[in-house]
Amino acid sequence: MRRVREPGAVFATQTLRARAGCPSMTITAAEDLGETDELTQEAVEVDSRLWGKLGPDGDGRYPLICHLLDTSAAAFVLWDTWLRPGLRELITAAVAPNDEAAARAIFSAIAGLHDVGKANKIFQGQLYAKTADAAVRGIVEELATAGFDVTTPPSAVPGRSVPPVYKTVMRRHEAVSLFVQTGIWPRGSDAVADVWASVVVGGHHGRFHPRFDPAVRAADCLTANGFLAGLTEAKWGAQQQAHEAAVLNACGVTRTQLDQPVHGEKTTTAILLLTGLVMLADWLASGAESVAHGHGLTIDPVADPTAWMNSRRTEYFEQSIPQTLGVYEDLADPLTAIMGDFADSPSPLQDIAPTIGRGLWIATETTGSGKTEAAMLRHTAVPGEGILFALPTRATTDAMFERIACYYSSSTNAASLLHAHRSLNSFYTNAAQPGDGLHSTPWLADARNALFAPVSVGTCDQVLLGALRQKNTPVRLLALANRHIVIDEVHSFDHYQAALLEELLAWWGETDTRVTLLSASLPTAVALRYAQSYGGPSVTVAPHYPGHISVTASGATSASVTSQRSYSLRVNLQETPATTLVDTHLARALHYRQQSADTRIAIVVNQVQRALDIARRLAESGERVIVLHSRMAAGHRAAVTRELHEVAGKASGQRGVIVVGTQIIESSLDLDFDHMISDLAPAPALIQRAGRLWRSTAVVDGVWAAHRFPRPTPVPTLDVIVATDAAGLLDAGASLPYLPGELRRTTDALRRDDRDSRVIAIPADVQQLVDAAAFDPRSPDLEDVSGELELIAAARKLQDAETVVVPFHHDHNDGTILSRETTHRELSAVTEPDELAEYSTRHIERPTVDCFIVQPEGASKWVWRASVEAALHSRNPHVVRAVLALTFPLSASNVSAKTGIEEIPGFDLDDEQGMRKRGSMQRRLVPVRLVDGAVYDDLLGVRFR
Q1: Is the dihedral of CA 157, 158, 159, 165 positive or negative?
Q2: Who has greater pLDDT, 538 or 230?
C-alpha cells in the first residue's frame, strides 16, 4: 500500500480549488467516490493494451507507455545536443533555479506526459471518427472485456447537436492531458504561470488550451469540467495516473516539482520554449523509424520504464537526432572557408565582426562591401550554434544558398532551403549525401520540419511567420531562438513587415538570440526602432554610416568603420512625360549600346508591364535581352537568374547584354553592370540598384583598381528617369507601387542647386540621402497632401500588423505577452488567429493567387500540357516539381477575360471535396487557360491580351 494521487478530477477537487479556473462547482464523479484530496489506494499497473500509435492500416499497435517514454528519451537528447546553452539557462531559471540537471529532467518528464490524455475512451476507440477500422474495433472489444468503459458518449452520436466546446475539449486528447495535470479546466482570466506544466502539455499540438475561438465561450468552462471529469474517472483515470507515475519515475521527477509555479519574470517565455520543445520531441518520437525501432526492443516498459527510456535514448535517439534533425557542426577553418583568398585582408567591418558576441548587431555598409562575409564571421565566433540566413526574394535566397553552401563545402551539416519552390532547387533534385558538404535529410525535407536545419537559408517570410498568431507558433519561435538569425536587405521591409520584425526582435531580445541585420541603406529612425525593439525602450544610440550598432542586455553601442568601397557615383535625373517613359528608357539604352557593343546595361523599372514593353522592343531591334520579373513561371525565373549570373556575374567574361527587370535586381543578386538606367524609386532602392554598377572592381578612396574590361565612363553613373504628368508633377500611376511623397523627397534630396546631375560620395552622402527621403509614420511631416496619403497608407499597414502579430513588443496598448501575469486567454490568442484578419508576412493590397497555365497544344515549355487532374492530384514528386516549376503569382483581379487569363472551372479553392483530392503541395494552385491573344512568351513570361 502507498499513497498516490486519485485518478483525474477526483484528486483536484480540493487541492487545486484555490487556483481553479472555474467558479466553485461540484464534480459529481468525485463526490460519488467520497474521496479527499489524497487517498491511500492500491497502485495500478500500466496497461500496455492502451495504444499511442497505430500503423497506417490500423495495425502495429504501439503501446501508449512506449510513446510517452520515447518522447522523454528524445527530450533528453534534444536538451543535451541541440538546445543552445542560453536557452537551457533560461528554462533552468524558470523551472529549477540553479539546477540544470533538474530542469533537464523536468522538461523530459513534461515531454513524456504530453499524451497521457490518450488514455481515454474517446481516443482509444476513435469514437468521434467517421469510420473506425477493424483494428480499432478489436481494441475497443478488448478494453471492454478488461472492464474499461467504452460506451459511446451522447455527443458522438451522428446528427446530435452538441455544444461547440466538444470540438476543442472532448475530441482533443491534449485537452485531456491538460486536465489530468490540474484536475480542473482553467478560465481565460487565470494566469498561466501557476499551472505552466498543464499549459505546455495542452499546447503540444500547436494550439494552447483552452481555446477561445468565437465558437467556444468562456462560460463553457463548467461544461468542459463535466465532460472531462467523465473521461478521467474509474479505470481511465487510474491508467492516466499510472502512465504519469511511470514517466515521472523514469525521469527522476516528482509531482511536486511539476506543481511548483514557474520562477522569475520570464514565465511566458519559458512556457513558449517548453511547448515548442515538447512539440519537437513528440514529432521525433512519432516518426515511423522511431516506432519501428521501439517495436524491436525487448525490454518490458511496464516492468522497467527507466530501462526502456534509457535504451531508447542511447540506442536510438542519440544516433537518429543528429541524422534527422541535425546538430550544428562548426567550420574547422572559418576564416579560410568564408574569406578564401582574402583571409589575410578582411575589411574593417569583417575584422570587427568576430568580436561581436551575443545580442543584436546592425551592420550598415555600402553594397559590395562584404557584409555577408562579416555576418558569417560573426556567426562562427560562437561555437555550436546554427544559422538561418533570410533574404527578401526567392531568387536572392537561391543565390545566397549557393554562397553559403560554398562556405560549408567541407562540413557535414544538414541544411534546408526555405521557400515555397525549394523542391525545384538542385540541392533537392540532385541531393547531396552526408560528407559532400551541406545535405538534406528525409526529416528536414518535410516542409513542416525544414526550419530546424542547422544551416538554413530562406526568404524573410519564413522568419516573419514567427510573429503571426497561428497554429504551431511555439515551435517556430523555438526554432528561431535556437540559432543565429541573419536578415539581409532589411531596408526593403515596408511598414507592415517592419512591424512584424519589431515583434520578433522583442522575442529575440527576451531569449538573448543572436541577430544580425544587414543593409546598405537603412534609415536612422528605423535602425533606432529595431535597437529599441530588441533592447527595450530605454535604448539610445546614434547610428554611424558606414558602421554598426550592438545591442545587448547591458546596453547599446555604435561605432563607425572605414569603408573599403569609397567612390563617387554620378546620378543623372531625366524628367519625361509618363506617356513616353518606355521610349525614354529605350533611347538611353540604345545610346549606350551605340557607344559600345560590349557594355553590360541594366534597365530596372518598377512595374512588370513596363519591363515587358521595354524588353519586347529591344528584342525586336535585335538586341540580346534578358528579362526578369515576377510574372514568370518559377522554373523560368530560376533559369533566368542562373543565366544572369553567367552573363553578368562578378566573374563573368560575357559582354554585350541588356538586362531588363523589376525590383528583384536590386536585392542581393551579385551582378556587375557598366551602365544602369532606373525608374525613379525611393532613395534606399536607388542606392541598392547603383550597387550593381562596377561591382567586381575594387575601389579605395575613389581610386579604382584595374578593370577586367574597359569601363565606359570615368565614374559609375546611374540614370534615373522621372515620369511626370501633364502638370509637370510626379505621375502617380507611373510611380506605383511607390507613393508620390517618398519619390518627391528622393528627387528633392538628389537635386542640388536645381541641377539634374549630382555626384554622390559613397559612403559619405548615403545616410543623409536615405534619411532625407525616409518617412516615419510615428512622427510624420505632413507638408502636403502626398504626405497625408503616405501617412494613411502607413497607418493602415501598422494597424493591419497590430491585428495579426503576437504582442511581444513593449508598446502594445494591452501590454506584452511576455509578462508574468499573462492569462490563459492571452496565451491562447498566440495560437488562435482572428478569423476576420488577413494573416500574411506581406501586406496584401490586392489578393494574389498562384497560377499555372494549362495548354495541351502549347508551344512554350512553361505551360502544362496534360490534364488539370494530373497536375493537381498527383503525389509523384517528379510531377509535383514539374507543376510547381510552372506556377507564377498573379493578382486575383487579373485572372479574368479582360487579360486573356481565365480560371478553368471545376477546380475552385473553396471546394472542400476537390481539395481532398489534391496533393499537399498543390492545395493553393489555380489552373488557368490563355484566351483572346494572351500568351506565355519564353523570353518575356506572361503577356496579357
Answers
A1: positive
A2: 538
Residues 6 or more apart whose Cβ sits within 8 Å of residue 11:
5, 35, 37, 38, 183
- Candidates 362, 338, 360; CA nearest to 519 is 362
Calpha distance 291→284 (Å, rounded): 10
Pair 327, 81: CB distance under 8 Å: yes
**What residues does 391 pair with on adjacent strands?**
459
Q: What angle do CA 671, 676, 682 make, to 5 degrees?
A: 95
Amino acid symbol at 336: T
| Residue 21: per-residue pLDDT | 37
Backbone φ and ψ for 863, nearest 5 degrees, come out as: -125, 155
pLDDT higher than threshold 70 for residue 780: no
Rounded to whole angstroms, the Cα distance separating 182 from 2 reads 21
Q: Which helix (H) or strand (E) holds 852?
A: strand 848-853
Cell numbers given for 913:
471535396
- Peptide bond just before 737 cis, omega within 30 deg: yes
C-alpha cell at 144: 471492454
The 3-state DSSP composition of the chain as helix, strand, coil percent (nearest 5) reads: 45, 15, 40
Cβ atoms of 848 and 892 within 8 Å: the answer is yes
pLDDT, tens digit, 9 for 90 and up, residues 762-777: 999 999 999 998 888 8
Q: For residue 696, what pLDDT is reported?
A: 86
Which candidate, 697, 730, 729, 689, places its Cα nearest to that of 713? Answer: 697
Grid coordinates of 839: 494573416
Residue carrying the nine cell digits 493590397: 845
Q: Is residue 442 within 8 Å of residue 324, measured between CB atoms? A: yes
Q: What is the Cα–Cα distance from 791 to 799, expressed in whole angstroms? A: 12
Of 604, 629, 704, nearest to 368 by C-alpha is 704
Strand order across the 515-519 sheet: 415-418, 455-459, 386-391, 483-487, 515-519, 360-364, 547-552, 555-560
DSSP bridge pairs for 759? 570
Q: Angle at the Cα of 330 (from 103 to 353), degrees rounded to 5?
A: 100
Please confirm whether the linkage preceding 210 is cis (ω < 30° from 0): yes
The rounded distance, in Å, linking the Cα atoms of 938 and 927 is: 19
Write out pLDDT tens, residues 204-226: 999 998 876 555 555 566 677 77
Which cell numbers hold the place of 937?
512568351
Query: Measured between alpha carbons, how far is 56 from 72 in angstroms, rounded to an integer?
Result: 24
Strand partners, 2: 41
- In this structure, the strands spanning 658-661 and 625-628 are parallel
Phi-psi region of 649 (alpha: psi -120 to 50; beta: other; left: phi over 0): beta
Query: What's the average model confidence in pLDDT over 663-672?
Result: 83
Q: For residue 539, how far is the Cα from the chain centroid?
A: 27
Helix (H) or strand (E) holding 643: helix 634-648
User: What secondary structure letter does DSSP report for 152?
Assistant: P
Grid coordinates belonging to 70: 520515447
Alpha helices in 751-833 (DSSP H): 766-773, 785-804, 824-830
Q: How far apart are CA 194 and CA 258, in angstroms?
A: 10
- Could you give the CA distance from residue 97 to residue 591 in angstroms, rounded to a whole number? 72
The rounded percent of the chain whose pLDDT value lies above 90 is 66
Three-state DSSP class for 62? strand
DSSP state of 129: S
In three-state secondary structure terms, 362 is strand
What's the mean per-residue pLDDT of the chain? 88
Domains and CATH numbers, the chain: 2-17+62-324 (1.10.3210.30), 334-560 (3.40.50.300), 567-773 (3.40.50.300), 848-943 (no CATH)
**What's 900's DSSP letter?**
T
CA distance 213 to 211: 6
| Three-class secondary structure of residue 704 per DSSP | strand
Instruction: Provide the greatest CA pair distance for the chain.
Output: 99
Strand (E) or helix (H) holding 555: strand 555-560
Q: Which residues contact 781 (CB under 8 A, 6 or more apart)?
A: 775, 787
